[in-house]
Amino acid sequence: MLKKIFLIIMAAVVINSGFLARAAEARVSQPATVIAYYFHGSFRCFTCNAMEKYSKEAIETNFKDALKSGGIEFKEINVEDKGNEHYIKDYGLYTKSLVLSMIKDGKEIKHKNLDKIWEYAKNEKEFIEYVTVEINNFMKEE
After folding, report:
1. 34, exposed or middle or buried, with CB in 10 Å at 0-12, 13-18, 19+?
2. Residue 115 to residues 48, 91, 95, 112: CA-CA distances in angstroms?
3. I want to staple 131 with a disulfide (CB 3.0 to 4.6 A). Which of 58, 101, 104, 113 is the partner?
4. pLDDT tens track for 10-22
5. How many domains does the chain have?
6. For residue 30, what pLDDT is reported?
7. CA-to-CA distance for 116 and 89, rounded, in angstroms?
8. pLDDT for 28-59, tens place per residue?
9. Residues 104 and 125 in one domain
10. What is the per-residue pLDDT for 93?
11. Which domain does 18 fall in, by range?
12. DSSP string computed for 15-32
């Protein structure tokens, strides 16, 4: 009888210690992730396509390590597709936009609309430089 009680207590300790270890892991804060969203509609002009291309190029060229580690992601989203309409309200969109969103522990903690992309849309080098500087500054502010 004592042996059974001892085994039951030991089993409870083992189960409980695994639960506590998982709970402690869950409380550890995960590093932030930056998502760069390029928002567009169904109609895509030459300039809009170029801005998406330059945005993606800036990230793939200047943030290779962060891309590989998951510290930064690039997503293009058609706000006219069903289910994506909320982004218009969420980010106050009124035209094609590049928005940076910082996600920490599953929640957006800040975002920034890179509203000068239209100023640099005709100059690939300046566009990429602008996006790169803005992402670096955004990531430093965590």
Report:
1. buried
2. 14, 12, 10, 9
3. 58
4. 655 556 656 555 5
5. 2
6. 72
7. 20
8. 667 889 999 999 999 999 999 999 999 999 99
9. yes
10. 96
11. 1-29
12. HHHHHHHHHHHHHSPPPP
